[in-house]
Amino acid sequence: MTVRIVNHSKHPLPEYATGLSAGMDIRANLNEPVVLKPLQRALIPSGLFIELPKGFEAQIRPRSGLALKKGITVLNTPGTIDADYRGEIGIILVNLSNEDFVVNDGERVCQMIIAKHETISWQQVETLEETERGAGGFGHTGQK
Questions:
Q1: Would you kindly state where each structural domain of the chain is located, as residue ranges?
Q2: Most buried of 54, 126, 140, 143, CB within 10 angstroms?
Q3: Residue 12 buriedness (CB in 10 A; 0-12 / 13-18 / 19+)
Q4: CA dist 79 to 60, 98, 110, 122, Å?
């Protein structure tokens, strides 16, 4: 699949790190570093604008290395970019660590995955089919 992209950043287009990678790293496009204090969040610009085909979304997800090593993650994970959105991709980062974190220009701040989705219509009914699980949830499976 080919996706149209406008790159207003100072960086190369996102690419897959390996042949079997699901996501592509997205880089911060900054004029100056952004300091995230503990529990602070900020919208980090990417300089990227995309045109997804109908039936697809882009998902913005944290990078596992930043999450584990630095406590940096993406809020509203996964963030969804709809096929009709034409604005700049922005990444909402949050610092969950106890130390300041500096986001520098060109830093890989998240990964983006393109995923197919369905558009559904609702069929309102009075009852649902019974299952073995039933209404059990929130840790219910695996409990005897």
A1: 4-116
A2: 140
A3: exposed
A4: 5, 24, 11, 24
Tokens of 54: 């109908």
Q: Tens digit of pLDDT for each residue in 12-65?
A: 999 999 999 999 999 999 999 999 999 999 999 999 999 999 999 999 999 999
Produce one character per residue of 83-93: b if its CB has 16 or more CB atoms within 10 Å, e if not. Answer: eeeeebbbbbb
Q: Please name the residue that has the structure tokens 């959105």.
A: 85
Distance, CA of 40 to CA of 58 (rounded, Å): 25
Q: Is 135 exposed, middle or buried (0-12, 13-18, 19+ CB in 10 A)?
A: exposed
Is the CATH code 2.70.40.10 the one for domain 4-116? Answer: yes
Query: What's this model's pTM, rounded to 2 decimal places?
Result: 0.88
